[in-house]
Specification:
By secondary structure, this protein is an alpha/beta fold. It folds into two domains: about 180 residues, Glycogen Phosphorylase B (Rossmann fold, 3-Layer(aba) Sandwich), CATH 3.40.50; about 170 residues, Glycogen Phosphorylase B (Rossmann fold). Helix content is about 45%, strand content about 15%. The protein contains 15 helices and 13 strands. A seven-stranded parallel sheet has the order 3-2-1-4-5-6-7, with helices on both faces. A six-stranded parallel sheet has the order 10-9-8-11-12-13, sandwiched between helices. α6 links the parallel β6 and β7.
């Protein structure tokens, strides 16, 4: 199959959706499919897929609607005669219209989280332009079925797969923060990740103990606001925002505890990786959390938006260290067996083949 991924994002952004694309494109490419990734020129995502030996297609505009980009993508599709376009939810209109203006390949939407804005518009565009949806949790699938996608076979749940960087050595956090327990969080610095809650929890914990520091990896438009808020709360010496890191595994392996405070998530890749590396995990019980943790068996699930509960849970986990270390070892085995990259690629390929065959039969 000839497959074109379309993914529009800021040049420096590289989060869970971008990881999924790189892993999926690479896996399909290795299975013999002709894969190309289209994104903004000089973006991090094009750099990553190029390193994997995948062909790329760059365009200037990073806006989700651009007539020039639509025409350019349509011409590229027509020239290369792609069978399938895989796009994310926010790029569906651009990708779908470009497909219709060209050789009319099928369009598959990858939806990694529940739509929270313009739901009716998105469902309408999905019904008009898409030939299938790949999502990573049953919760998201049920959302689509409830909101107007009537055909259950139109949606395929494909769990994210974990790539284990077992050969990577942990960074020496004890040298950077001597005598401290390091609580790690990874994510784009945006509203839905709710890092204000983490700062508020740190404020409570600082009053009780001085052996904890928080380390946050990631970039985003809230960087300045969050650093100022930490300073206002007088915890800027306890909560450290250190920006985007290309290799998160060395931090995940070194931390004492991983925490996710999001109000909205899909299948949280950073929490999955932390569990795979045998780290105790605290995460908000949103969307895919139950599926990821076997109904809360392998992580401590908390309510979103409650900084008091975050602080209390952190202290409970730290004070019962041996119990949670044992639990995290069991979690590592579960994650590594359940969420494999091989299964993710195979299930994705199966769905693409089925969708393309169904489309061709209807022509």
């Amino acid at each position: 199959m000839k497959i074109l991924f379309i993914h529009i994002a800021e040049k420096t952004k590289f989060g869970g959706a971008e990881k999924w694309l790189v892993n999926t494109a690479s896996g399909l490419n290795k299975k013999g499919h002709d894969v190309v990734v289209g994104s903004v020129n000089n973006s991090e995502i094009l750099k990553k897929v190029s390193e994997k030996g995948i062909n790329t297609f760059g365009f200037r505009n990073h806006k989700y609607f651009s007539l020039i980009t639509i025409i350019k993508v349509a011409n590229f599709i027509r020239k290369n005669k792609f069978d399938i376009i895989i796009t994310k939810r926010r790029d569906l209109f651009l990708s779908g219209l470009a497909a219709k203006l060209s050789t009319k390949p099928i369009v598959i939407v990858r939806s990694g989280s529940i739509p929270i804005y313009d739901v009716k518009k998105h469902i309408s565009q999905t019904n008009k332009y898409a030939h299938g949806i790949i999502t990573n949790t049953k919760t998201i699938k049920n959302f689509y079925l409830f909101n107007g996608i009537k055909n259950r076979d139109f949606i395929r749940v494909v769990y994210n797969g974990i790539i284990k960087d077992d050969e990577i050595s942990p960074i020496d956090l004890s040298a950077i923060f001597p005598g401290k327990k390091v609580i790690l969080s990874i994510g784009h610095l945006v509203k839905e990740k709710s890092y204000h809650d983490l700062i508020d929890a740190a404020t409570l914990l600082k009053r009780k103990r001085n052996d904890i520091v928080f380390l946050v990896l990631g970039d985003g438009y809230l960087y300045d606001e969050l650093t100022k808020y930490a300073k206002k709360k007088k915890v800027d010496d306890h909560v450290h925002f250190i920006g985007y890191k290309d290799n998160t595994a060395e931090y995940l392996k070194a931390c004492d505890l991983f925490i996710l405070t999001s109000h909205f998530e899909g299948m949280a890749s950073s929490a999955m990786e932390a569990l795979a590396y045998g780290k105790p995990v605290i995460m908000t019980n949103v969307n895919g959390a139950l599926e990821l943790t076997d109904n809360g068996r392998y992580a401590v699930l908390i309510r979103p938006g409650n900084h008091m509960e975050i602080a209390e849970t952190i202290e409970r986990v730290i004070n019962n260290n041996q119990h949670y270390i044992k639990l995290s070892q069991e979690a590592s085995n579960y994650i590594r067996q359940t969420f494999t990259i091989e299964s993710m690629i195979q299930r994705t390929e199966d769905f693409l083949v089925e969708s393309l065959e169904l489309y061709n039969r209807k022509k």
